[in-house]
Amino acid sequence: MSDASVWVWGVSLLLALVLAPLQLGVIAKVKSFFGGRRGPSVLQWYHDLWKLLRKESVCSSTSAGLVRLAPPVGVASCLCALSLLPLGFMDSPLGFTGDIIVFLYLLGIGRLALVLGALDTGSSFEGMGASRELHFSALAEMAIVAVVVFLVMLTHDYSLGGVLNTAGTEAWRGSGTSLILIVIALLLVTLAENCRVPFDDPETHLELTMVHEAMVLDHAGPDLALIHYGAALKLWVFAAFLTTAAVPGRLFACPWTGLAVHVALVFVVSVAVGVIESAMARYRFLKVPYLLLTASAMAAMAIFLLEFGG
Amino acid sequence: MSLESVSLWVLALGGVVSALSMLVRRASGHGVPAFLGLWSCVSGCLIGLCGACAGLRDGDGLSSLFQLPVYVVGCCAAVHAYGYLRGHAEGREGAFWLFFNGMLASMVWVTAASGFLEFLVAWELMGAMSFALVAFEYRSKDSAGASWGYLLACQAGGALLMVMHAMEGGTGAVALAAVVVGVLGFGLKIGLPGLHTWLPEAHPAAPAPVSAVMSGAMIALGFYGVLTQVPLPSAGPGGWRLVAWLLAVCGTVVMVPAVALALAQNNLKRLLAYSSVENMGVVALGLGLGLYGHCCGETLMGVAGIAGASLHLLNHALLKGTLFLGAGSVLRATGTLELDSMGGLLRRLPQTGALFGASAVSLSGLPPFNGFIGEFLIYYAAFLGIRHGAAGSCATAGDLAFLALCVLAVLMLALTGGLAAAAYARAIGGAFLGEPRTAAAASAREVAPCMRAAMWVLSALSLTVMVSSPFLCRALMPPVLSALGLPSSASEVTQVSCLLSRVALVSGALLLVTALVCVARRCLPHGAETPVRPTWDCGYARPDARMEYTSTALVQPLMDYFAPLLRLHRRTHPAEGLFPEHGSVGLHTEDLANALLWRPLHRLTWRVADVVHRLQSGYLHLYVLVMVIALLALLAWGWLDGMSLSSRGGMVK
Question: Which of A180, B209, B434, B455 is the most buried (most CB within 10 A)?
Answer without folding.
Answer: B434
